[in-house]
Amino acid sequence: MIDFSPTAEQKRFVELAREFSANEIRPVALEYDADPVYPEEILKKAHELGFLYTNIPESYGGSGMDHVTHYMVTEALNYDCCAIGQMIGISHLATAPILLSGTEEQKKKFLGEMTRGHKSACFCLTEPEAGSDAAAMKTRAEKKGDKYILNGNKCYITNGRDADLLCVFASTDPEKGTKGISCFAVPRDTPGIKTGRIEDKMGHRALFVAELFFEDVELTEENLIGKEDQGFKLAMMALDRGRVNITAICTAISQRALDEAAKWANERVQFGQTIGSFQGIHFMLSDMYQQIIACRALYLQLGWMLDQQRRCTTEAASAKCFASDAAMKTTTDAVQILGGSGYMKGSVAEKLMRDAKLTQIFEGTNQINRIVSGRGVLSGKNLLF
User: Fold this and answer.
1) pLDDT tens per residue across span 291-337
2) 73: Cβ–Cβ under 8 A, 6 or more apart, which residues?
3) Residues of the chain predicted below pLDDT 70
């Protein structure tokens, strides 16, 4: 029988995460959105409580949570601000290739060095001419003797300015397209790495996005994760996990939107009664809630699949599409229910609506994810049981 009851440990982690979010993130969320600030002190406190590396095993300095627990905690930490919440969990995507295919020595070196403080990582895949089309990647890691010489540039790299560990994807054999891409773990202090433009974004404003330039960066076999030409496969496997992560983040955004809308509906009086007494508002709140419980069920199911070491490419792409579309719809409806109050800068609902939009774009646009999902359906590789 399927049991959705959280364990005592899961309850404790989620309650602690909710308390941390309410006490540390909520008071500064709107301030950091208006005037973006790197949440240094918040990250330090999150590290002390074990929230910074939830997906990394204890043997490498992480909290060692299973995927289901990690995603439950992710929802709780993103409730008050998904930008700050993602800064706490930013290393989840970038460390996945190392956890999936790194040697024991690489895990101890790269992950161990990162987790000793409140350091972080970033996932370097997107380029100016290679976003959804990874085969167009121009960043090159040329083998010269026992070294790889890395040259190229990446764009829209989340946490690119501040990350201490870079998970970089580069072509080692351009003629092979995606089958010629390799993955490298690159410490930030490696000579030849430069930061370019810091983007000014519509939403997720306390989550910094940057250009990165690599000029004759010398790497060795120690930096190569997995084998040559396995990078694209590792990137896709990491994105499976990342897309489930986004599903949990979208659930948090939608839940906060619903809570703001319900609170307003109980307080706002028009025509001599609260607007929550009107049937039209009931319909909107019900639709919002339906999508939230579906999103939550999706990330719990996919977390279970990952804990069973089952591939969930089709399911993760589907969940990311559904949850991000739901977040866009629920936040738009929240603004509608709050009316002028929700539309004004500085309101929680307005921020949520801006934040929701990015979830339909990053880690694969929803159009690309629908292609991934559709191909999975056609292949027959979408059977849960």
Assistant:
1) 999 999 999 999 999 999 998 999 999 999 999 999 999 999 999 99
2) 13, 14, 17, 51, 54, 65
3) 1, 381-385
DSSP 269-303: EETTEEGGGSHHHHHHHHHHHHHHHHHHHHHHHHH
Question: How much is the pLDDT for 130?
Answer: 84
**Fold classified for 8-115:** Butyryl-Coa Dehydrogenase, subunit A; domain 1 (1.10.540)
Q: Of 211, 315, 350, 363, which residue is the catalytic one? A: 363
State the residue for tokens 């738009």: 332
Across 318-332, b (16+ Cβ under 10 Å) vs e yields bbbbbbbbbbbbbbb
Extended strands (E) in 97-146 = 121-124, 140-144
Q: Measured between alpha carbons, how far is residue 47 from residues 17, 38, 164, 227 in Å? A: 12, 15, 15, 32
Do 232-379 and 8-115 have the same topology in CATH? no
Q: Using CA atoms, how far apart are residues 202 and 11, in angstroms rounded to an integer?
A: 34
Task: Classify domain 121-228 at the CATH class level.
Answer: mainly beta
In angstroms, the CA 83 to CA 94 distance is: 17
Location of structure tokens 């600030």:
37
Structure tokens at 22: 């309410």
Q: What is the pLDDT of residue 385?
A: 59
How many helices, marked H, and strands, marked E, lie in the chain? 14, 10
Query: Which of the four CATH numbers 2.30.29.30, 3.40.50.12160, 3.40.50.300, 1.20.140.10 does domain 232-379 have?
Result: 1.20.140.10
Residue closest to 24 by CA, chosen among 48, 46, 2: 46
Domain segments of the chain: what residues? 8-115, 121-228, 232-379
Q: How far apart are CA 244 and CA 318, in angstroms?
A: 10
**What pLDDT score does 383 carry?**
61
Which of helix, strand or coil describes residue 208?
coil
- The model's pLDDT over 14-33, given as tens digits with 9 standing for 90+, comes to 999 999 999 999 999 999 99
363 is catalytic: yes
Quick one: residue 380, left, alpha or beta (phi over 0 = left, psi -120 to 50 = alpha)?
left
